[in-house]
């Protein structure tokens, strides 16, 4: 496990992110590769649930407002 993956898991626990928010964070991470199609499919399926849709869109909005060194967050959203 890489340090960035470990740090991401700790942040997920500390911030008490939901499953939907964790998946969006993983898909829009600063890693140089893109998200897997299965992860994107899972996120798309989550948007059919009203509560999960709000969580997904909240995290997407948060990622769209990133700047500076987190430019990949904006690019991947």
Automatic annotation (TrEMBL):
- Note the PANTHER family from the entry: EPSIN-2, EPSIN/ENT-RELATED
Its lineage opens with: Eukaryota, Metazoa, Chordata, Craniata, Vertebrata
**Residue ranges occupied by any ENTH domain in the UniProt entry:** 12-77
Gene3D superfamilies xref list: 1.25.40.90
Q: What superkingdom does the record give?
A: Eukaryota
Can you name this protein?
Answer: ENTH domain-containing protein
UniProt cross-references to InterPro entries, sorted A to Z? ENTH, ENTH_VHS
> A Gene Ontology CC term for this entry?
plasma membrane
Source species, please?
Neogobius melanostomus (round goby)
A single Gene Ontology MF term assigned here is: phospholipid binding
| PROSITE patterns from the UniProt entry | ENTH
Question: One biological process GO term for this chain?
Answer: endocytosis
Signal peptide range: none
Q: Which Pfam families match?
A: ENTH (PF01417)
